[in-house]
Design goal:
Layout: H1 2-34, H2 48-53, H3 55-68, H4 80-104, H5 112-142, E1 148-153, H6 157-168, E2 174-180, E3 189-190, E4 193-197, H7 202-208, E5 213-216, H8 226-236, E6 239-242, E7 256-259, E8 262-266, H9 275-295, H10 297-310, E9 316-322, E10 328-334, H11 342-345, H12 359-367, H13 374-379, E11 384-386, H14 393-402, E12 415-417, H15 419-422, H16 431-443, H17 447-461
Parallel strand pairs: 1-2, 1-5, 2-4, 5-6, 11-12
Antiparallel strand pairs: 3-4, 6-8, 7-8, 9-10
Helix pairs in contact: 1-3, 1-5, 3-4, 4-5, 7-8, 10-12
């Protein structure tokens, strides 16, 4: 629920900023050309339509710049002044970029003064809007909404420092539900936050749910347990942070947050938890899948006829897979095997010369045509063009116990193709290697990385020796 609320807030944030950019631009035009202090001679400047046509590029351009300065990343502990600096930086870059484009287009009649007025107005109104948003969030958090419930693991100076800062800043919307520790007695309290159990009970607390974050605040003499605890938290899928008890050991880097001088290290950085990134990727998925459905419709029609004509059974094969946030969904493929019982289906992966595969099915698998119905899964939001391949429920249950970090792959939508697949890890290949490639993709996602994988799929992925 909290993730959904944050997503809705970020989307509204983007829409409001877009309106503010457009409004600031229109107001700057009025001040420059229509007001009593402006140049009201129509012969002395370009037509209004020419100026306003720039909004088609200006609004998305400025929203992209705001995204680049992390204006849409959830940073509850960020001060308004720091946000103001980010807004100023984005506007300076935007104005310089605007000037450069006008110079390259040799558009000398376009008022540079109006652009400067726009930048000043835009910085002011955007900062005011973000300040009002902070007040609104502070209000709803006082009412008990948009709160993140945190469980601390380890009683230390870092834990006390974190609790103190949270209590001093209720506008952040954090609630420390309790602390787990092996050396401090249960019911020991620090500013009202109690030790509620032992660290060995972490699994029980994770299973019961109710926590949005697990923050590891172990003392220096207990860091040998860190790897085990991180693995346990990640297996549950709960977002995990680590606050070092000796903060000078950890310089600031892109994987940390600064909470008034206290570095908070995110155990795993997932770019697609950012709402703007998710929306951008989703837009590409919708457009890309729709174009693919149209482009490959003759191929899919031919495959459907071939499947129906050569073996008994349905044309489309549906199978339950595990997707985003561990939610099950039905994945579609062209049927490439003889019709089987449920027990036979659970036999395992297809192997080389598998007798269950039909002759037409073998060709469809070899060329990846059998996967094309998944364009509909992508269009309806269950999958993405690029991402970790989804797995069947029984294998998810097996692998999450055997392979560290396996459940991390479910923090993003599963994909039709992925970094592991274009590197040869598909079909009957090492699942551990596949997960390593999947996690690398998740932590290093970008639009250019997705494009690289799509191009790699076109070049290497359609015909694959490991696809049986």
């Amino acid at each position: 629920m909290i993730k959904d609320n944050q997503t809705h807030l970020n989307r509204a944030h983007v829409v409001v900023d877009g309106l503010l950019v457009a409004g600031s631009y229109m107001l700057s035009y009025y001040i420059k050309f229509e007001s009593f202090i402006g140049d009201r001679n129509p012969a002395g400047h370009l037509a209004m339509e020419t100026y306003f046509s720039a909004l088609y590029f200006l609004v998305p351009g400025f929203l992209f710049l705001y995204y680049l300065v992390n204006l849409y990343t959830s940073r509850r502990a960020l001060k308004l002044w720091d946000e103001f600096v980010d807004i100023v930086q984005a506007n300076i870059v935007g104005v310089i970029g605007f000037y450069v484009i006008l110079f390259m287009l040799k558009q000398n009649d376009f008022s540079r003064t109006m652009i400067a007025i726009f930048a000043i107005i835009n910085v002011i109104v955007t900062t005011i809007a973000h300040g009002l948003l902070r007040k609104f969030l502070r209000y709803i958090r006082k009412k008990g909404y948009n709160i993140k419930h945190i469980l601390l693991v380890g009683y230390s100076r870092a834990a006390e420092g974190y609790i103190s800062r949270i209590l001093e800043n209720p506008q952040w919307g954090y609630d420390v539900a309790g602390i787990l520790d092996d050396f401090v007695p249960v019911d020991t309290s620090y500013h009202g936050v109690k030790v509620v159990g032992k660290i060995d009970q972490l699994g029980d607390y994770l299973a019961n749910g109710g926590y949005d974050e697990i923050t590891i605040t172990l003392p220096l003499n207990d860091y040998d347990r860190l790897e085990e605890l991180v693995a346990q938290c990640e297996k549950s899928g709960v977002h995990t942070k680590f606050i070092p008890d000796y903060s000078s050991l950890f310089p600031s880097n892109p994987y940390t947050e600064d909470v008034q001088g206290l570095p908070v290290i995110n155990i795993r950085y997932v770019p697609l938890t950012n709402s703007f990134n998710r929306m951008s990727k989703r837009l590409v998925d919708i457009v890309g899948s729709l174009l693919a459905i149209i482009l490959f419709s003759p191929v899919m029609l031919a495959a459907a006829i071939a499947v129906k004509a050569t073996s008994k059974g349905p044309i489309i094969y549906k199978q339950e897979r595990i997707g985003l946030n561990g939610e099950p969904f039905m994945m579609y493929k062209f049927r490439t095997m003889k019709v089987q019982s449920e027990a036979e289906e659970k036999k395992g992966w297809t192997t080389k010369n598998d007798p269950r595969v039909t002759k037409v099915g073998a060709l469809l698998r070899k060329t990846s045509i059998d996967e094309m119905p998944q364009f509909f899964n992508i269009f309806f939001g269950k999958m993405s063009l690029v991402g970790p391949r989804p797995e069947r429920p029984q294998f998810v249950e097996k692998f999450k116990e055997q392979i560290p970090r396996y459940m991390v792959k479910h923090q993003v939508r599963p994909g039709l193709t992925g970094w592991a697949q274009i590197n040869g890890y598909r079909g009957d290949t090492s699942i551990r290697k596949r997960i390593d490639y999947d996690i690398y993709y998740i932590e290093n996602w970008s639009m250019t990385f997705d494009m690289k994988i799509i191009l790699g799929t076109i070049r290497y992925g359609f015909v694959n020796k490991n696809a049986y």
